[in-house]
Design goal:
Blueprint (H helix, E strand, L loop, with lengths): L4 H13 L3 H14 L4 H17 L5 H18 L4 H13 L8 H14 L1 H14 L3 H14 L4 H13 L3 H14 L5 H13 L3 H13 L7 H17 L3 H14 L4 H7 L1
Helix pairs in contact: 1-2, 1-3, 2-3, 3-4, 4-5, 5-6, 5-7, 6-7, 7-8, 8-9, 9-10, 9-11, 10-11, 11-12, 11-13, 12-13, 13-14, 14-15
Length: about 270
């Protein structure tokens, strides 16, 4: 039924799981046109547009980004308690200049609103703003506060580990994940996190390989094509570090089979 907004919404969600941002955006656009009053339709339309913007030319990016921003704003207007819509607004407002609707004050207001709804998400939002402002001490403090606020949630541990990895502070990056892995041995995102850092650093390769293979063998339900393609690429990189070139190439080709647009996999294969 082409006039069923829910059908288009779910087709869009499925398209995003397949990393098909253009197809997803078309479905969400139709859902929004049929029913303007549902926050989630605008949220996911904005998400698809954001992915499109990331792959668009420099000329098109500002226009697609501005459209995405307006969809997230509409999602929040319809549902002020929408964490998933407020979160990207923090980043949009911090990066977009004032004449295009952004600004640091707007970004901080969204981070504060997030904190009122979810303390950990608020701390992570303020950490991102601190990173953007190159305030490293505040960024680290906010990420550790996020972990303290939600010790059973993987996201804050991953954020801290990724931040350390961005500065090539490899021992600290691995260490940041250890408490979560110890307390949640059945969550495969923990060992996969070790694998991601192993692929970046060339360290703890055996453990990293084991973590990625476990993730690939039984991927979580929310791991779509984009995530799985990334996992195969990282496995290939880890194997390359270990000198297993032929096997590495096979795994990177598998990453491209899952997502032919995986630019990092293309670079790794070269």
């Amino acid at each position: 039924n082409d006039r069923d907004a829910r059908a288009h919404y779910y087709l869009g969600r499925l398209a995003l799981l397949d990393d098909a941002a253009d197809a997803a955006a078309a479905q969400f656009e139709r859902a929004v046109a049929l029913d303007q009053a549902v926050s989630d339709y605008h949220l996911w339309y904005g998400t698809a547009l954001s992915q499109q913007a990331g792959r668009a030319s420099a000329l098109k990016q500002p226009f697609i980004g501005k459209h995405a921003l307006s969809e997230f704003e509409r999602a929040v207007a319809l549902d002020p308690r929408s964490l998933e819509a407020r979160d990207p607004l923090v980043d949009f407002y911090s990066m977009v200049p004032g004449f295009m609707g952004g600004g640091a004050d707007k970004a901080r207001d969204q981070a504060q609103a997030l904190a009122g709804l979810d303390a950990a998400r608020g701390h992570l939002a303020f950490a991102r703003l601190a990173i953007f402002a190159k305030d490293t001490s505040t960024a680290e403090r906010e990420m550790r506060a996020a972990i303290a606020s939600a010790p059973d949630t993987f996201r804050p541990y991953s954020a801290l580990a990724n931040w350390y990895a961005g500065d090539k502070r490899w021992p600290e990056a691995f260490k940041a994940l250890e408490p979560y892995i110890k307390n949640h041995p059945d969550d495969l995102y923990g060992p996969y996190g070790i694998g991601r850092i192993a692929a970046l650093s060339g360290q703890q390769l055996d453990r990293g390989e084991k973590g990625i293979r476990a993730f690939i063998a039984k991927p979580p339900k929310d791991a779509g094509a984009l995530v799985l393609s990334g996992a195969w690429r990282r496995l290939g990189v880890v194997l390359e570090f270990q000198g297993k070139r032929a096997e590495s190439q096979g795994d990177i080709k598998q990453a491209l089979t899952i997502d032919p647009r995986n630019e990092e996999a293309k670079k790794a294969l070269k």
